[in-house]
Design brief:
alpha/beta; 6-stranded parallel β-sheet; 6 helices
Length: 212
């Protein structure tokens, strides 16, 4: 019984410590207000499915709204839309690209990363494939924090623009899984040295860099 109690508190301490580390790493780098976002050439939009159980995925819709707002405000010139494209029937990057084009974003300003199977893959490939060492991550606040942590651990200069959150009552498992994802992020960047699942040839992004 004592061993069980000790194990419980040890696991709790690890989860708490990883969560605190991720938050501390991202402190001051996540922007909720559009006007506070610095002008940056590229935004990395993190993928998710546009629909869940046949219904519109609010996480997806809010991320698209945030990306469009950045572009309309002149904060970014181009997007990397990065997500899972593991099967013929599941293609997050194409869904994001189509949604952005439908909202008036030029096709030429959108670059698809079809191998963003994990947040780590998306963040690291933004530099290794697309040549961007500085970018704005577009996702919900909790996700942006972890992405920024991963970016900084890989020597990248990432900021976040927080898309509108989704109520915890609507997606409780998503928020619960985040605690485990933060533990994994710490392990990946400390003990495991995890690399993206796929590499690939470099992609040249032709961007007219805005004046900061």
């Amino acid at each position: 019984m004592a061993l069980l109690v000790i194990s419980f508190w040890l696991v709790a301490l690890i989860i708490w410590g990883c969560d605190a580390w991720v938050k501390r790493s991202a402190a001051g780098r996540c922007h909720r207000k559009l006007e506070s976002v610095p002008i940056t050439p590229v935004a990395l939009v993190l993928g998710c499915s546009p629909k869940v159980a046949g219904r519109t995925n609010l996480f997806f819709g809010h991320r698209i709204n945030a990306a469009v707002a950045l572009h309309r405000a002149g904060k970014v010139k181009a997007f990397i839309v990065s997500g899972d494209n593991g099967t013929h029937d599941y293609d997050e990057p194409t869904a994001m690209k189509e949604a952005l084009i439908a909202r008036g974003i030029p096709d030429a300003a959108i670059y698809c990363d079809y191998a963003g199977f994990r947040t780590l893959d998306s963040v690291v490939r933004a530099q290794s494939i697309f040549g961007q060492s500085r970018f704005i991550v577009v996702s919900q606040h909790f996700h942006n924090e972890r992405a920024i942590f991963l970016a900084r651990r890989h020597g990248l200069d990432a900021l976040g623009f927080d898309a509108e959150d989704v109520s915890r009552s609507i997606a409780p498992t998503t928020y619960l899984r985040e605690y485990l994802a933060r533990v994994q992020a710490v392990l990946d960047t400390t003990l495991l040295g995890t690399k993206p699942k796929f590499s690939g040839p470099p992609v040249l992004m032709t961007i007219r860099h805005p004046e900061a």
